[in-house]
Specification:
By secondary structure, the protein is an alpha/beta fold. It is built from 10 helices and 12 strands. The radius of gyration is 27 Å and the shape is elongated.
Length: about 280
Amino acid sequence: MKKTIATVIAAILVFSLFAGCNSKTPSNETSVSGTTSGGKTLSGSVSTDGSTSMEKVIGALGEAFTAENSGVNFTYNPTGSGSGITAVSEGRCDIGLSSRALKDEEKATGLKETVLAYDGICVIVNTGNTVANLTLDQIAKIYTGEIKNWSELGGTDGEIVLIGREAGSGTRDGFEAITKTEDLCQYRQELTSTGDVITTVSQNPGAIGYASLASVKNTVKALSVGGVAASEATVKDGTYAIQRPFVLVTKEGKTLSEAAQAFFDYITSAEASEIITAAGAVSVK
């Protein structure tokens, strides 16, 4: 009897050892950072083009992605929202960047939008300006020329110098749509980038401009609008009035390259939300 039991135990041990040696996971089913699900290292290029307001956000996302995928070459061309949308339509980039929603006529051409984040459009003035708050109505009257002097708003006597973005800018489209000043603004200067607007306002005591919350620096002063300061919290809860989406633009029916699709999937995942927040925008995740 003892001999029989010993024989059974020995058989069990042999079987267990054999099963353990054959239970390894095939290497081609393992997915790690920087590789595809088939174990191949990700390579290729990802080209983005468009909104200058999205520079800080898309730059941070591109840096994080390429840090994990060293074989991928990421590029960003800051041409403005309108140009970025056109670049996608004409097949000159993988992903367009727009700081406004697509228009119906743009969608009708086969373009598709994916909202990446939301951003406040800050109304900015020189740091020496004593005005701290404006209503939407006052902002509209300033930009249409009805209010011309800072003294009319409780500030120091001086001409209000209107700074804005060029036609086709997503920031300009968003600002004018919300303030209901489309085709009515009497700009002194129309500049081609968010950075240029910030620099110009910082150097002119009488200037007023608008710029992405994600890009505003302490070289200028952001005004409250209707008593609400622009911040991640007030953009997220909708209490800050002047806000717009950051949009990824792709073309219906066109398959992205493996690298471009991986980048798109990464930046629209919950994993990327902390990076988007750190860059000053409000992630949709």
